[in-house]
Amino acid sequence: MLETSDCSSCHAPERKVVGPAYRDVANRYKGQAGAAEKLAAKIKSGGSGDWGTVPMTAHPDLTDAQLKEMVARILSLSGESPARPQQPPSKLYSYTLADGTIVKLDFPLFVEGQQPKVTNAVFHGYEMFNSYCYRCHGQDATGSEIAPDLRRSLKQGMTEQEFLSTSMAGKPEKGMPSWAGFLSEEEVKQVYQYVKGRSVDLVPVGRPPSEMD
């Protein structure tokens, strides 16, 4: 149930995605009286505060039996976390803007040696943005009066992690839905890459040429 529900959009067994790793949750509550009941109630009601400010989506439709099984699985992961290998520095990709400025990205925007053909990931991000996100954020990430211009948000410093957290958790008070359970972590990152390309004016309006062409 953890793997097939929207839980997998925000959590993973050994690493933080939007919310904490299941093992970190298990270690925090290990041996605490009433831990299972507390976690079950949290999953059902949602909310924020225990692990940061990003709210967790409520799951009111889960039965008590389902919650019990899910929490039991999470708590079974307690124990010393395996050594997490140190990640090497991300490779940077340099691109020249129209004014001669060099911008460096931590992902490839174009197929190597074939600019302006975007990668499959960026193209997929374009398709998803213009299928779902455009209704509020404007066709081709051009902005609208309904929701923020995401190009501007990225120019002002929004990180990939912040983009992912906001997309998965949503902003109900502002009418933005949660995309957890509908879009995967990888798909949201692809949308981010497309919007990033648009924010630095390297990806044009409309269907960008891609390596699939």
Main sheet properties: 2 strands, antiparallel
Shape: elongated
Question: What are the low-pLDDT stretches, counting only 5+ consecutive residues below 50?
Answer: none
**SS field, number of helical segments:** 8
At a glance:
By secondary structure, the protein is mostly helical.
Write structural notes for this entry.
The chain has about 210 residues and is mainly alpha-helical. The protein has two domains: about 70 residues, Orthogonal Bundle (Cytochrome Bc1 Complex, Chain D, domain 2), CATH 1.10.760; about 110 residues, Cytochrome Bc1 Complex, Chain D, domain 2. The protein has a two-stranded antiparallel sheet. Helix 5 packs across helix 8. The chain is elongated and about 60 Å long. The two termini are about 40 Å apart. The relative contact order is 0.15.
Indicate the topology.
Layout: H1 7-10, H2 22-29, H3 35-45, H4 64-75, E1 93-96, E2 102-105, H5 120-137, H6 150-155, H7 160-169, H8 185-199
Antiparallel strand pairs: 1-2
Helix pairs in contact: 3-4, 5-8, 7-8
Considering the chains and any ligands shown, give keywords for the structure.
213 residues; 2 domains; Cytochrome Bc1 Complex, Chain D, domain 2; two-stranded antiparallel ribbon; mainly alpha; 8 helices
